[in-house]
Batch of 2 targets.
Target 1
Amino acid sequence: MTLPIRLAMIYGSNREGRLCDTVADWAAAEVDKSGAFSLLRLDPAGLDLSLRHPSRDDPTVAGLRQAIAAADAFLVVTPEYNRGYPAPLKFMIDCASHEWHAKPVAFVSYGGISGGLRAVEQLRLVFGELHTATIRDCVSFAQAHERFRPDGSLPEGDGAYKAMALLLARLAWWARALRDARQASAYSEVAA
Ligand SMILES: Cc1cc2nc3c(=O)[nH]c(=O)nc-3n(C[C@H](O)[C@H](O)[C@H](O)COP(=O)(O)O)c2cc1C
């Protein structure tokens, strides 16, 4: 029997009144439907992070690093703020280092006209530095506030369902391949 893939879903926004909850809940439901993953949510709004970059001994940071270390794959759900990604997301990313290594990262983005894609392009650079494999396929919601119904549901037939199914299938492929590879030999021991 194949073990479920431990997927950490990372929230990009901690803004009061954020749309992130709606988008993340939709994404989580699609993750559940796929049956391949066990899901853990990492939400900057629920973390007691100080305004200053905390030390590695900080209990919140230690817990966050443990959760990232335990994950096989990541799904970042992020809006676009001023052509980039929100600061709390970068803060969370920077709290860990080797815990990210040799794991895949996929993106569900949303925003106004850009659908969050400019934030995702920047995040690909950041995650490259962290030795991750970013998944080419992305789910993007342009004019996101108009796409979801007031109850948070997304109309049947929306193209995002198909895009999400492909994203999750490819994320699962990478997650299994890299989990096997990490078990076969430690990434930290790769040297010239
Ligand atoms: C500070 C700020 C900057 C924004 N900049 C952009 C932008 O550059 N491009 C875009 O498409 N949408 C932009 N938006 C719209 C947001 O992507 C949209 O409101 C989204 O719902 C914000 O996510 P949140 O509600 O989960 O915080 C911006 C919103 C805020 C609050």
Target 2
Amino acid sequence: MRCRESDFEKIPGGVSRRDFLKVCTATAVYMGLPASIGPKIAEAATAAKKRPPVIWLSGQECTGCTETLLRSTHPTVENLILDLIALDYSETLNTGAGHQAEEYRAKSIEENKGKFILVVEGSIPVKDGGIYCKIAGKPVLEILKETAPKAAAVVAIGSCAAWGGVPSAGPNPTGATPAYKILEGTGIPVINIPGCPPNGYNFLSTVLYYVTFKKLPELDDKLRPKFAYGRLIHENCERRPHFDAGRFAEQFGDDGHRMGYCLYKLGCKGPETFNNCSTLRFNDMGTWPVNTGHPCFGCSEEGVGFNIPLHTPAEVKNVTPSAVQTPISVDHGGGGSAAAIGLAAGVAGAAIGAGAVALKKVGQEEKKQD
Ligand code: SF4
Ligand code: SF4
């Protein structure tokens, strides 16, 4: 991969200064920080003399987490991320290959000891000495153990890296293990951004937070950033009024399903999955599985996605009042817009929703101008 050592000569992501400031302000709100922190984030990101170097390791994975950043409908997310960091090594994106790429990885690690971010995508097989996933003839298990102590922090992106994901599903023939378990007891800071794939904005916000404050954001007991994984999907779901009123789709295609009723009885895992899909949504279009009529699979939650059968009813974790105050209407039960949800949400929900909507709006406005 071509080394890009340049200082910030322009606003990251090729967006206008005004739009970059909007993204940073929305990101601040989305992370639960005061909106006034937005300019500080923008200043930190543009004033950096050198972008934080990143080594991106791939274990047992499908490249979906990288693809989700690159294949977004609008270039904002990947452009911002790739302009904010110096991606020195990524097996998916390297232009160099073989010895050349490996030499460059070793050089970057030595030159940036204690300063680079190690991103891990995919789980790490530990069975039989880790022989089930090798890079340049070396088990990725060994590479992770050698590299992580030299990094400033480790970001485990996607469910496979964060808790094992698909490769760890029973009977887990390769001993697929999440990065944090391999590094347990070493004192190396690890942050998990689970999801299959995770939302690119959650990664972007984490990067912006790190660039601004030179530390990781506040994490929960599963090492996930609280700003993204602090609430259940169920708390901000537009179908929640139907759940509370006991109106459920019983089968795909039945009247309840067509009316936009709650998908709990079809196996929706929103009540036990901590993530912000119901507010942030995907594809810059405000879409997510539940508003297209499919239950949440719980892909980001350890022990739920790839563990509990898709249509098995979820365990309702904690029944808090709905953050969504959308009026219940049988005729219009198919789901509110992202903007409506942002407006209707409670205090915390509103902050998250508004940030999410603003983040997406920037992308949409630019798209119109293209
Ligand atoms: S069970 Fe699923 S569809 Fe129903 S309100 Fe909760 S998250 Fe939404
Ligand atoms: S809605 Fe559920 S299945 Fe879909 S990405 Fe979010 S957590 Fe995963």
